[in-house]
Design goal:
By secondary structure, the protein is an alpha/beta fold. The protein has one domain. Helix content is 39%, strand content 20%. It contains eleven helices and eleven strands. 37% of the residues are buried.
Length: 279
């Protein structure tokens, strides 16, 4: 865990991966935030239970995310073919280049190949505010996690290296606080358990992230006034895609639960990776 001071008396808490969260709050850690009330709202009985689910997997969430990605598999294959591609000349291909053909050039046929990231260290970073108001159900949040997993999946199909981060920026008594967690590291297999729990389970926010922001000496810090992603976190993560808290997303963004394929294509188009914005 890394703690950075921001905006005077504010605090930014960074977890470099999910193992960092488990190491920090597992074992003999004594919670500062009580949260013994309302099991359903918190999603677990206590912090230890939340950490156990994070470490051992959340079966229901994984099944939901797998179902979303699986239902889109064939469509995602099509989307992958719509990625911005590189024109290649060969002896066989989609159609002839008449200029090269008339000149007698054997490699006169044109085909388009997906252009993967080949630049060393180049990573596509996705930053998600994993919070949502009470009108968004836990099921909605988990299915949104499925849409994010589908986006990571299709980027991987064409050789993109992807990282997924979550953050929960708030102000508490006038002080800024942001908890930032890397959920999926570039170059590692897609961990559906981590994606499902981090983006879809209320305990990630209301147990783990509340614990990170809680000040035991004042009794303040669990709930706060939500904010857009703040400059300090944007500077730290340097995201290419920013997904705001559910109720703060503009109306121009397709609903990731009702229209997950449109949402995936929308995000890819923002990255400049689609030849066409719609199917």
């Amino acid at each position: 865990m890394i703690v950075n001071s921001i905006r005077g008396t504010g605090k930014q808490v960074v977890f470099t991966d999910m193992a960092d969260v488990i190491a920090t709050y597992g074992g003999t850690h004594q919670p500062a935030y009580d949260g013994s009330w309302d099991y359903e709202w918190h999603g677990s009985s206590d912090l230890a239970s939340a950490i156990s689910m994070l470490a051992n997997g959340w079966d229901a969430g994984r099944r939901t995310v797998d179902a979303v990605v699986g239902s889109l598999e064939s469509e995602l294959q099509t989307v992958a073919h719509d990625m911005v591609q590189e024109m290649v000349y060969d002896t066989a291909g989609a159609y002839p280049d008449m200029g090269r053909y008339m000149e007698g050039e054997p490699e006169c046929m044109v085909q388009y190949m997906p252009t993967p990231d080949t630049t060393s260290g180049q990573v596509t970073r996705i930053l998600v505010d994993n919070g949502a108001s009470a009108k968004y159900s836990a099921d909605w949040m988990t299915k949104r996690a499925g849409a994010v997993a589908a986006l990571v999946h299709v980027l991987g199909m064409v050789g993109k290296s992807v990282e997924v981060w979550i953050a929960s920026p708030v102000t508490i008594n006038g002080k800024h606080h942001d908890t930032v967690v890397c959920v999926h590291r570039a170059g590692t297999p897609l961990n559906v358990d981590s994606i499902a729990f981090a983006l879809g389970h209320p305990s990630m926010l209301r147990r783990i992230m509340f614990e990170a922001r809680y000040d035991k000496t004042t009794g303040h810090g669990a709930a706060g006034h939500t904010q857009p992603h703040i400059a300090e976190t944007l500077d730290y993560v340097q995201p290419h895609i920013v997904i705001q808290r559910a109720e703060n997303e503009p109306s121009t963004v397709p609903d990731p639960v009702d229209k997950p394929l449109e949402w995936v294509r929308f995000q890819l188009d923002k990255l400049g990776l689609l030849e066409f914005a719609s199917a």
